[in-house]
TrEMBL record:
Protein name, as recorded: Peptide chain release factor 3
Pfam family, one: RF3_C
Residues bound to GTP: 25-32, 93-97, 147-150
CDD domains linked to this entry: RF3, RF3_III
Length: 534
């Protein structure tokens, strides 16, 4: 049967109830707090605060994680599943620090929507803006949560205007705050004509929800002081007049974002936001792939790796490949084809990430995220199917912006270093280039901090002290063209040529002039700052 709104076949109920999303925000806006409350309402944890407590226990287990904690950033990403009402939510965590934007970008290829959290006093901040641009590239639907309304915050119209202006997206208020700062007492639910009143005393419950007929309902006066009521009536009237009405289709197309106001720490507004994700967030979407797209309702299972993480559990030196299921109904023990190597893989120990633990995934549907422990067979961008040679597309690799040479502190350990570097390259934590001439490696990253993270991980996980030093190169470009032309080009420019961990040819240079020269002198090849992972 066709869905009247989308003109697509209706999804099997198990798939239709899935909502797979990420949270984008600037550090400190409240992402962690909001995540905790999601899990609280999702029944995944008993008490809010556990994500943090658990996280801390895990972090102290290693220096690297310690560093993550000291700097107040989250380097590693994970996925969490929980139920809310009739929905199954899959929340994919995005690393918050700007140095890890490539990782973030790839994470966003695995979700169908994003929740944007802004601080009510600060509005749209730099990192939010950046992440938003990435979502826009994929036309991801965005739902907005304006947090920290219990504190002095900006005027509601100002906040909405700023989002509309800076992000060029229509904003439609799903709720409207009553009072600000100390006077903030709750919201008026614009979609259901209800008052949601906040209880500052108990942070884990929403105190009261008052059903009203309209803003003229005399019942209102029992709950809201006269001066706030007047202001509320005025503002809501203006909002209805000036701001666009919520249009679910525009939300799905990424042209409009509904905004909810609340206070994550007081658990206020969170439930309404969750209802909103269920109602306006999309079902699992069609996945672009070659040579054909993959639709979630297809009977056969397909999925793709968007992240690889090593040493999630220091006791087991395994890696976990995070796989977004693109179609079908996966069952534990299934044999899937690893399309890149054409080899079958029995998926016998897939894991599902529940709030506080990981457990075996007996099954998974399109939209779900599962973790597959492996010893390095699975790389970012890999596709798993029931046999068909499909390759999910659109997972890019970006040219690094910083390059450094790397050497093992102990020259006899060069082989170990190579192994360590290859692991990080496959995880997507760095680009590793082996120069055509000479020995050693050149490592490329997006932000300076990544060098430090790498150095401490190599030392910790491989017992190998390393030294990074300045490289003579500052830019890397992949060389595209037919094989012969690329080989010939490499041969004539040996001092600039390296191979990445897939064996692809990379041109390294310090000068833009060099890049222009190649464009002029070698019409058979092109240099590019991205390559698609396959
Ligand atoms: P993240 O960096 O985005 O993950 O932000 P956190 O969730 O760690 O929150 C940053 C700080 O803001 C913490 O001290 C939180 O306790 C605080 N915070 C989070 N939500 C609220 C809120 O609704 N009101 C107030 N006043 N503080 C909040």
């Amino acid at each position: 049967m066709l869905d009247t709104q989308t003109n697509r076949p209706e999804l099997p109920p198990e798939i239709a109830r899935r909502r797979t999303f990420a949270i984008i925000s600037h550090p400190d806006a409240g992402k962690t707090t909001l995540t905790e409350k999601f899990l609280l309402y999702g029944g995944a944890i008993q008490m809010a605060g556990q994500v943090r407590a658990k996280g801390e226990a895990r972090r102290t287990r290693s220096d690297f994680m310690q560093m993550e904690k000291d700097r107040g950033i989250s380097v590693s990403a994970s996925a969490m599943s929980f139920d809310f009402g009739k929905f199954r939510f899959n929340l994919v965590d995005t690393p918050g620090h700007s140095d890890f934007s490539e990782d973030t970008y790839r994470t966003l290829t695995a979700v169908d929507a994003a929740v944007m959290v802004v601080d009510g006093a600060k509005g749209v901040e730099s990192q939010t803006q950046k992440l938003f641009e990435v979502c826009r590239l994929r036309d991801l639907p965005i739902l907005t949560f304006c947090n920290k309304m219990d504190r002095e915050s900006r005027d509601t119209f100002d906040i909405i205007d700023e989002i509309q202006e800076n992000l060029a997206i229509d904003v439609s208020p799903a709720s409207w705050p009553i009072g600000v700062g100390r006077e903030f007492m709750g919201t008026y639910d614009m979609l259901n004509d209800r008052l949601e009143l906040m209880d500052r005393a108990d942070r884990n419950v929403v105190a009261e929800s008052v059903q009203i007929e309209s803003l003229d309902d005399p019942k209102l006066a029992d709950h809201v002081p006269e001066h706030l009521l007047e202001q509320l009536r005025e503002e809501v009237e203006m909002a209805k007049e000036l701001l666009p009405k919520l249009d679910p289709q525009a939300v799905l197309e990424g042209h409009m974002t509904p905004i909810w106001f609340g206070s994550a720490i007081n658990s206020f507004g969170v439930k309404e936001l969750m209802d909103g994700i269920g109602t306006y967030g999309p079902e699992p979407q069609i996945q672009t792939a070659e040579p054909r797209k993959i639709a979630p309702e297809e009977k056969k299972v397909a999925g793709f790796v968007f992240k690889v993480q090593a040493n999630m559990d220091p006791k087991h030196r395994d890696r976990v490949a995070f796989v977004r299921m693109a179609s079908g109904h996966f069952k534990r023990g299934m044999k899937l084809t690893h399309v890149r190597t054409k080899k079958p893989m029995a998926i016998s120990n897939p894991v599902l990430f529940l709030a506080s633990d990981r457990e075996l995934a007996e099954e998974a549907w399109a939209g779900d995220i599962i973790g597959i422990p492996n010893h390095g067979q699975l790389r970012i961008g890999d596709t798993l199917t029931e046999g068909e040679a499909l390759r999910v597309s659109g997972i890019p690799s970006f040219a690094p912006e910083l390059l450094q040479g790397v050497r093992a502190g102990d020259p006899l350990k060069a082989k170990h270093l190579e192994k360590a570097l290859m692991q990080f390259a496959e995880e997507g934590a760095a680009k590793v280039f082996k120069p055509m001439i000479g020995s050693g490696f050149i490592v490329g990253v997006v932000g300076q901090l990544q060098f430090e993270v790498l150095a401490s991980r190599i030392e910790m996980e491989y017992g190998l002290p390393v030294r990074f030093d300045q490289s003579q190169f500052t830019s890397a470009r992949w060389v595209h063209g037919d094989r012969k032309a690329v080989e010939k080009f490499a041969d004539m420019n040996k001092q600039h040529i390296s191979y990445d961990n897939d064996g692809d040819v990379v041109f390294l240079t310090r000068l833009q002039w060099d890049i222009d020269r190649v464009a002029r002198d070698y019409p058979d090849v092109t240099l590019s700052a991205t390559k698609e992972m396959m």
